[in-house]
């Protein structure tokens, strides 16, 4: 199992869950849920990345979390709240293990190991959302962009990935010109290369130094 939450389950528990899991391909830009919609499927990304966006007035967005191979989408349904509060958009294409939410909830009720993993993950996801909200209010855009790129690198476990200005603008809740200026500043410092959405982190320690402390808090 490439998803680390599923890999953390004891072998016997995973064997019971495995028959209900289907591997699905998710494409960049695909919307997996919208605020107010019923959560019908739960996703465990393998090599894909899902952006969790808070939506204001139907159009303004701010990324409040990223779900990669260390997480899951739809945890709230497993806790009894099956109406989505966020928009979930695929940021990096790849695969995910998908399971019907009703089946997952039924298994959760009789599986203490799965409960433990889920509760710890939800706590971490909430802490991440709180920290990103604080970061978005108090820290300069260049530091926020550095933080976002480092988190993306950690979730994908790769120094190279593709993120357009538009995607980053939606994630950071700013205009595209702001992302352009911040990315240019990081590139000028030889911390990253950025061309037509193709990003490579050249100096991760240097990028971490530019980032606010929020990156280290979220990583921890």
Overview of the molecule:
It is a single chain. The protein folds into two domains: about 5-135, Jelly Rolls (Sandwich); about 140-220, Arc Repressor Mutant, subunit A (Orthogonal Bundle), CATH 1.10.10. About 45% of the residues lie in helices and about 25% in strands. It is built from ten helices and ten strands. It has helices spanning about 5, 10-15, 75-80, 100-110, 110-140, 140-155, 165-170, 175-190, 205-210, 215-220; strands spanning about 20-25, 30-35, 40-45, 50-55, 60-65, 85-90, 95-100, 160, 190-195, 200. The strands form three sheets. Strands 2-6-4-5 form a four-stranded antiparallel beta sheet. It has a three-stranded antiparallel beta sheet with strand order 1-7-3. Strands 8-10-9 form a three-stranded antiparallel beta sheet. Helix 6 (about 140-155) packs across helix 8 (about 175-190) and helix 6 runs antiparallel to helix 9 (about 205-210). The mean pLDDT is about 90.
SSE arrangement:
Blueprint: H1 4-7, H2 11-17, E1 22-26, E2 31-33, E3 41-45, E4 49-56, E5 60-67, H3 75-78, E6 87-92, E7 94-100, H4 101-109, H5 112-138, H6 141-156, E8 160-162, H7 165-172, H8 176-188, E9 192-195, E10 198-201, H9 204-210, H10 214-219
Antiparallel strand pairs: 1-7, 2-6, 3-7, 4-5, 4-6, 8-10, 9-10
Helix pairs in contact: 6-8, 6-9, 7-8
């Amino acid at each position: 199992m490439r998803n680390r939450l599923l890999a953390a389950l004891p072998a016997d528990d995973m064997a019971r869950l495995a028959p209900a899991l289907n591997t699905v391909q998710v494409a960049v830009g695909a919307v997996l849920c919208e605020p107010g919609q019923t959560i019908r499927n739960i996703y465990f990304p393998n090599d894909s990345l899902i952006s969790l966006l808070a939506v204001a007035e139907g159009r303004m967005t701010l990324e409040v979390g990223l779900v990669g191979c260390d997480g899951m989408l739809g945890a709230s349904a497993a806790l009894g709240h099956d109406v989505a509060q966020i928009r979930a958009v695929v940021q990096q294409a790849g695969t995910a293990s998908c399971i019907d939410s009703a089946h997952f909830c039924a298994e959760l009720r009789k599986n203490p190991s799965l409960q433990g993993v889920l509760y710890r993950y939800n706590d971490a996801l909430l802490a991440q959302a709180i920290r990103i909200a604080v970061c978005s209010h108090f820290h300069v855009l260049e530091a926020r962009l550095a933080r976002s790129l480092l988190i993306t690198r950690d979730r994908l476990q790769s120094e190279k990935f593709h993120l357009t200005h538009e995607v980053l603008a939606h994630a950071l809740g700013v205009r595209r010109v702001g992302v352009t200026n911040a990315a240019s500043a990081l590139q000028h410092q030889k911390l990253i290369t950025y061309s037509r959405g193709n990003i490579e982190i050249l100096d991760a320690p240097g990028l971490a130094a530019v980032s606010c402390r929020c990156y280290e808090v979220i990583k921890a």
